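Final paragraph of the annual report: two paired records, presented back to back.
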Amino acid sequence: MKNEKAICPAIIVAIMLVIFAGCASRMEIKKQQIKKTVMADTVKVNAEKKKEKNKTDSLEKKDTGLTAATELMIRACDNYLALNDSGQKTAEVLSIKANLLYNNRHFDWSRTVYNQILERYENTQFYYDAMRMIAQSYYEEKRFDEAQNWYRKLSYVAQSVPDREDAIQRIAESIFRMAEAYEEQKKFKDAAVEYERISLEFPESKIADVALFNSGLAYEKMTEWTHAILIFQRLINKYSKSPLLPKALFRIAKNHEKMLQWDYAADAYIKVALEHTESELGPLALYNAGFCLENAGKLKEAAATFEKLSVVYPQSPDAPDVLFKAGEIYGKIKDWQSVTRVNQIFTSKFGSDQDRIIQALCMGGVALYMQSREADAIKQLEKAAMTFEKMKDPSSVNAYYAAKAIFTIGEIYHGQMSKINLSSQHSIYRKQLDQKSSLMDKAIESYSKVIKFSILEWTTRSVFQIGQIYEDFGVSIFRQQRPSFKSLEERMSLELGIAKAVEKYFVENAIYYHELNVKLGIKEEIEDKYITQSRQKLTFLPYLAGDNYLALVKIATNSTEINPEGFSSIARTLQTLQKVAPFQEKAIDLYLKCLELGAAYNETNEYYEKAASSITGQSFLVGQTYDKLVTIAR
């Protein structure tokens, strides 16, 4: 075999062009024997040891899936290496072969070749490139832990500052991808830690702020609101030039909101709007701030925030709605000057908008309602509803405010019903009860009409209000004035009638609608505040109804003094105990209803716990009552 110096430079070029067959003349293969192209792997080489050394990374017996051209190129490289295992071009040919394998996604095979370069060509550009490609191959295979380990090695041997910075950036990217993989596997804790690790180990990385933001989001997914706030705050403090600042501040507000910390949430939302005026989050931040302030009980500030939103962002699709909301809140605090101003602004900006006709009429009706001009308000709101009915193709906005108009009519009747306090005088009582019943029916009719609009927000609110009005009616019966009683029997008769009425309106009527609301939430996969409140009523109402029956027990037992020596006293005691036991049993039944509903809808609140405790206590007392009955009878 000829030595390396005897091989002309043309052969090196031939390797690149897959024409290594030019070496055939060196092997004394006669031209007349060649009937087709001689494949590179048919070349006989005397250096068997060299051939054995390269056996593990050759094409022999491999199902490679490579194209014919690529296979020829790799065979050309193999044959060159077999002939020139330690030549000047060997590192270059090894690099060509490894890159071919890498580009065809034979990553494990390519790493075998790259490792040969690492073993033999330390402190060369080939060495650095091979290490980089090994790291990159692991990255492509999504084996990010191995990738970042190799990039870390690469940063130690980098031959220039840019190369080292690039290696560090690649380490950060590998950790980032590893965190993403954890997220896909729902391993949010691991993801959060890896994202956070980037900002700790590589704070100057281009993706450090993004990683920190993602870490905060991962903590949110674990409902660790406080930890998420700390992460977002660190991003704000550490990366003051980051484009993610408004988003981080917005997430801080959202996490405070999740914890019902309305003041902190409102402050953070307002900062987004004031400090990041160019951010697209500005309108939404002010919108959320208004509701947070309203929930915090700061109605004046809430109204001013909504009004500001409509002025600062007049093109926002929410501008008309928040202006309406501002007027509504100003009405609640009886700031009529502001109500007038807001109404004038609304009329001038949106009065001619066909999609806002019903909203404008509704706004006028709500303003009258806020001023306690209820009769005029009902007329205006009914006008809004009738105008909507005449529309051939009403918009969704008009439908929304038509529903609001009818709902407000229901609220007016509901409020009027609640104002009637039942008298103890029988003649007046009957008249008042009829008035309350009539107003309740009118309110329920209005709330029921709202449900027919099939607007989810108004549906859950209306269903809740129907349950609430039944509860309010039952409460008014319970709170009615009591006359003076001539006997215990008279008092017990009235109190029993009241207890039965409360049970009817609480358990038979109100709970029916609250349970309906909860079922609707489950079906639609939503949990707004009205569904949440309905869920709470499922245990509160039966517990309260049960307590009413126990009140009868107290009245009866407190009015009877047990005296076993007097026959008349014994008779009264026996009579009282006979009445008490059914009341105790009725209370237990209602407590069981509380437990049943609480367990069915996962509402194990304080009333659920009280009911469970009361059942045990009352069961014991019922036993005592019957024991006394037996003792006295003897």
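The closing record of the year follows.
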Amino acid sequence: SVIHHWERELNRFYPRIRVYPYHGPGRRRQLLQALEPIVFVTTYATATNDVAELSKVPFLYLVLDEATSIKNPDTKRTQAVKALNAAHRLALSGTPVENRPAELWSIFDFLMRGHLGKYGTFVRLFEERIGAGDRAASEKLGRRIRPFLLRRTKDEVARDLPDKIEMDEWCGLSPEQEQLYGALQETVKQLRTALQRGEQVSYTTNILPVLTKLKQICDHPALVSGEKVKEPGHGRSEKFDWIVAKIDEIHASGEQVVVFSHFLGMLDLLETVLRRKGMSYIRIDGSTTRRQAVIDRFNAGQAGVAICSVQAAGYGINMTAANHVIHADRWWNPAVEDQATDRVHRIGQDKTVYVYRIMVEGTLEERIDRLLMRKRGMADQIVRAAVGDSDRGWTRDELLELLRPLD
């Protein structure tokens, strides 16, 4: 759907240029050798798979949409993109820094190799100092990238864009959730102690599974119980009940809503309720086929509710038929959440947009909320310095804060 979106926009602004979606098993590699001007629109995955052929083509311009897709310099995707040959390069991103300043280094290594020095030097001069709260380092980095950064805010390019009202909603744990949450606290305590002692603790194998389970418990007990739920049941999760009630309220008003979650199980539970209520809805996750047709159906008003995986629907698409957004759970960096919200609050929106973040008090979600505010401030500070005005990326101290008991 992102490819089709670019194809539509290119044809709208420059109808005389030939646009070719270079994607899928039927893609015509011979067109890469064509003499006529062609705009190739492709995906990062296709570019990675076809890097041998694509790297031989002398492109005039190479434009990266969602340039933070190459924020990790060690991935095959990043290395493939940097291997492509182009006279001019552009990187587009609403959030050039998500978790840490080193992500910006990787983007500039694509744009102007060497401009921000070697990676190790950058980490020493900027990453570590900015992470420690050194404002002078942020300003120095901002001055370094300022000549090559063009920033356009929504206020500048969409002066008539309606207001966006963001609300944090808080709820508690049900007795069932409290029992499940409490059962994990000994494991949390052990991990916290190991980190405090300086022991080597694997984030992927030891910490992430526990944090994920705690987040799932906050959403609904069924996500961790392994049960096959035909009906979520009222009272098992105050958060889930709040989301359903809010959907009912929005639906009754005749307006449309997009619900984002990071768990497919949460989408399954919501889908069960929507079916029972007889509500028209669409679902977008990694398995959704013909995504653009599904999105078009929603934007045409043929469905009142969209339940979406953030990973599948959080960027590159328009869902401006809705003017309500519900974030059922929080991701590990604020940019992902902001990008998802911007599927609704963007050019083409003519109503006030209401954004709801529903969180459980006294749990990991409260810690995540505080850390996301801090990360958003760090990213804003760098960008503000640059214009003259984190997949995850938690530090050890941030992990300790996540695992620390609430006061």
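The two ends are 45 Å apart (CA to CA). This concludes the annual technical report; the extension proposal builds directly on these records.
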